[in-house]
Design the sequence.
């Protein structure tokens, strides 16, 4: 499953997340978790729109 949304498991296993509500973005959209390696981010200099839940 390449993309997933945070649920109670995120809260249970990540001490820095206080609530699954942390992953609710603008307009009630859920923020999508995508594990992208930093090396790939550093190589990609494209101008891509941000995930709408983060705007």
Sequence:
């Amino acid at each position: 499953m390449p993309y997933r949304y945070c649920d109670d498991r995120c809260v249970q296993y990540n001490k820095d997340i206080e609530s699954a509500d942390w992953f609710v973005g603008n307009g009630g959209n859920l923020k999508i978790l995508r594990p992208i390696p930093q090396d790939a981010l550093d190589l990609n200099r494209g101008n891509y729109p941000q995930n709408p839940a983060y705007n």
Notes: The CA atoms of residues 24 and 30 lie 5 Å apart. The chain has a mean pLDDT of 76.
